[in-house]
Design brief:
This protein is an alpha/beta fold. The protein contains seven helices and nine strands, in the order αβββαβαββαβαβαβα.
Amino acid sequence: MKNFDEAIAQKGLELPLVEEFYSLQGEGYHTGKAAYFIRIGGCDIGCRWCDSKMSWNPSLHPLVSIDVIVSNALKTAANAVVVTGGEPSLFNLKPLTEKLKVHKIKTFIETAGAKPLTGNWDWICLSPKRQSPPDESFYKIANELKVIIYDDEDYHWAEEVASKVNKDCILYLQSEWSRYEQNIPAIVNYVKAYPKWNVSLQAHKFMHIP
């Protein structure tokens, strides 16, 4: 990751904003619900199949005050904000979540858990990556575990992390989008064989919405 400013990340008063938009949640437990999305730049994991590679380098995106970000969210009817990336755990998100909570906005995050989490969260979606396992602290606090299936090795990874999360964590398998047609039959069969798992679909892509 190039030009990552640790001081800015620790303060959390400005964030390298890749995009922000009001849409429907397309994946996991909250699929179909309206939410305001905040995508933060900066990622030190670098999945080969990532569908948001433009977010990896934070220096490519403007630093935006969290006051502006919250103000933009409040211009919509959203009662929930989803923070994603990139890898949002690289940043101090306490100031952002505190400002959202003042307005009674629910706070959701999707993270690979690269670093210990900061902020006040109503829902934590842990989507861990094999090449950069999450900080151990996430296993106790994750509300939802979403493992991306690219190849057969990912099923072993899914079971490994599932064995560590808390008993209330909801388990999902989701095909990497470019291999959906190839992967979905095996995922369906896997969930039928091991019904503790659920299938997560990228519904927003089927609906052709952001």
